[in-house]
Design goal:
219 residues; mainly alpha; two-stranded antiparallel ribbon; 2 strands; 63% helix
């Protein structure tokens, strides 16, 4: 019986790989529901949805690492969403390391929030770190856990999205000019000025549009 490997064997790749597109899609799914859950806690002080989401998060990560990524329900959803897109292959080993970090974070939240039924700065910080990891993955295609992998094992990961593991010169379209940096600084200055000049105006509670323009709405 052949020994199972973590990841998929794809012709042309010397190590097992995974499809980065479905990983990003699954990170987006988890980020959306984790973010909504945390916002409900912040504004409603209701932990119910967060408890369920942490349970789902931990279960899915456990399946990815200890069973097989192909059987992960969230990854399968991501695969279905991006099924018409050409795969982007990434080394499986660094993704496994990143998901072990995910298990560690989600297990910490699960024990403190679900098992002990408590909340603290530790839970809040763990949730914040979880959101940061998911956001960077889905928004920028940057695997922070993979960065940690390179630091821990002192070796360069193979087959990174966008070939970021390969040292090469940036193309002209990737370079940032002084004018572009100046525009970022100008935006920051504009935001700060807006806070000082228009804060009272923005703090006013919005009014009903229909009442504002004199339209009667019959219930």
């Amino acid at each position: 019986m052949a020994k199972s490997t973590f990841g998929e064997t794809v012709p042309g790749y010397s190590i097992p790989v995974l499809n980065e597109r479905e990983i990003r899609a699954s990170a987006g799914i988890l980020f959306l529901f984790m973010f909504i859950s945390i916002m409900i806690v912040v504004f409603k002080a209701n932990f119910l949805m967060l408890k369920y989401m942490v349970t789902v998060f931990l279960a899915d990560m456990t399946i990815r690492v200890f069973v097989n990524p192909k059987y992960s329900p969230i990854l399968t959803m991501g695969r279905m969403i991006v099924s018409n897109q050409t795969p982007i292959y990434v080394g499986a080993i660094q993704k496994k390391f990143a998901w072990v970090i995910g298990i560690t974070i989600s297990a910490t939240i699960f024990v403190l929030l679900v098992v002990v039924n408590s909340f603290s700065a530790i839970t809040g910080l763990a949730c914040f770190i979880c959101l940061i990891f998911l956001f960077f993955e889905t928004a920028f295609g940057i695997c922070l856990g993979c960065k940690v992998y390179a630091l821990v094992y002192r070796e360069k990961a193979q087959y990174c999205p966008g070939e970021v593991c390969e040292a090469k010169a940036r193309q002209p379209i990737q370079k940032t000019s002084g004018t572009q940096l100046l525009m970022i600084a100008a935006l920051a200055a504009f935001v700060v000025a807006s806070v000082f000049l228009f804060n009272d105006f923005y703090k006013e509670k919005p009014r009903n549009l229909w009442k504002l323009i004199g339209v009667e709405v019959h219930k």
